[in-house]
């Protein structure tokens, strides 16, 4: 994960375009439309064949994805708010509807259709998910300033140990 200015830049999701992706049964992307690629900051080609967690944002609670896969396993549609990570470290929020694609009654793929969220909904879900992270994963959301110098130390540490910046910060604090 990239910490820095880019991480806090929100990309607005277009109102009148369909945002679509499909995956195989293990969650690898088999189709992505231009709009989905655009808001994620990728080319369509870069997304094809990749696991859908390529756009997973670190602020998303694990239980949401568990819930998605549980619903799909029970042949049910899932819908809810998702904050996604862009290639440049920025983010965007969507309302996602994830469901099975069937052929002759058999599930062959999964598909997701997304639409924009209102600003009030984004604030609501940001808070709800922060609460979930705390109660379910014992992880606290902090937002603060550190010196450039400290950030460089953090970056070097994360590179050396192949850790995200978040995990490096935690490792250094607990040292
Ligand atoms: C059709 C479909 C669409 C999905 N869309 C997203 C998405 O937009 N963002 C996301 O983080 N995960 C999405 N997922 C869930 C991912 O497959 C994955 O479970 C999630 O990113 C968490 O990663 P992990 O399972 O490796 O922990 C989608 C799954 C399916 C089947």
Descriptive notes:
With 175 residues, the chain is of the alpha+beta class. It has a domain of 110 residues: PAS domain (Beta-Lactamase, 2-Layer Sandwich). It has 6 helices and 5 strands; from the N terminus they run ββαααβββααα. Strands 2-1-5-4-3 form a 5-stranded antiparallel β-sheet. Strand 1 and strand 2 form a beta hairpin. Helix 5 crosses helix 6. The mean pLDDT is 93. The site of flavin mononucleotide has 17 residues, from strand 1, helix 3, strand 3, strand 4 and strand 5. Flavin mononucleotide binds next to strand 1, helix 3, strand 3, strand 4 and strand 5.
Main features:
five-stranded antiparallel sheet, single chain, binds flavin mononucleotide, 175 residues, Beta-Lactamase, 6 helices, alpha+beta, 5 strands
β-strand number: 5
Chain-averaged pLDDT: 93
Helical content band? 25-40%
Name the shape in a single word: globular
Strand fraction = 15-25%
How is the biggest beta sheet arranged? 5 strands, antiparallel
The sequence of SSEs as H and E is: EEHHHEEEHHH
**Would you state the CATH class of the domain at 8-117?**
Alpha Beta
What is the terminal-to-terminal distance?
21 Å
Order of strands across the main sheet: 2-1-5-4-3
Low-pLDDT stretches are none
Structural class: alpha+beta
Write a brief caption for the model.
The chain is α+β, with helices and mostly antiparallel strands. Helices cover 38% and strands 23% of the residues. It has a 5-stranded antiparallel sheet.
């Amino acid at each position: 994960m990239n910490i820095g200015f880019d991480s806090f830049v929100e990309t607005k999701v277009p109102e009148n375009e369909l945002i679509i992706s499909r995956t195989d049964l293990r969650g690898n992307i088999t189709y992505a439309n231009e709009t989905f690629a655009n808001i994620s900051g990728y080319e369509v080609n870069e997304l094809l064949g990749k696991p859908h967690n390529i756009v997973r944002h670190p602020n998303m609670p694990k239980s949401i994805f568990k819930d998605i896969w549980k619903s799909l396993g029970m042949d049910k549609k899932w819908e809810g708010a998702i904050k996604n990570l862009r290639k440049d470290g920025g983010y965007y929020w969507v309302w996602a509807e994830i469901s099975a694609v069937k052929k002759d009654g058999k599930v062959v793929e999964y598909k997701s259709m997304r639409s924009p969220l209102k600003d009030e909904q984004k604030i609501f879900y940001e808070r709800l998910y922060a609460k979930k992270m705390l109660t379910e994963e014992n992880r606290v959301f902090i937002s603060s300033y550190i010196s450039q110098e400290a950030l460089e130390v953090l970056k070097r540490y994360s590179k050396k140990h192949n850790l995200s910046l978040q995990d490096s910060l935690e490792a250094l604090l607990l040292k």
